[in-house]
Recover the amino acids of this structure.
């Protein structure tokens, strides 16, 4: 996952990708997402997931 940044300025949107393909996500407004946004402001993040 990475913070969307199209103009070189900080954007409040988070873009989730799977195999470099954007995935639509309805992000909640809660403490967990706020923390995720803060962490993504510091670095890109990859999360390994399986089903």
């Amino acid at each position: 996952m990475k913070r969307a940044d199209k103009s070189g300025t900080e954007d409040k949107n988070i873009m989730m990708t799977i195999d470099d393909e954007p995935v639509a996500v309805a992000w909640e407004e809660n403490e967990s997402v706020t923390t995720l946004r803060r962490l993504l402001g510091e670095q890109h993040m990859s999360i390994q997931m399986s089903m």
About this structure: The helical segments are 31-42. Residues 31-42 form the longest helix (12 residues). The CA atoms of residues 15 and 21 lie 10 Å apart. Strands lie at 2-3, 14-18, 21-23.
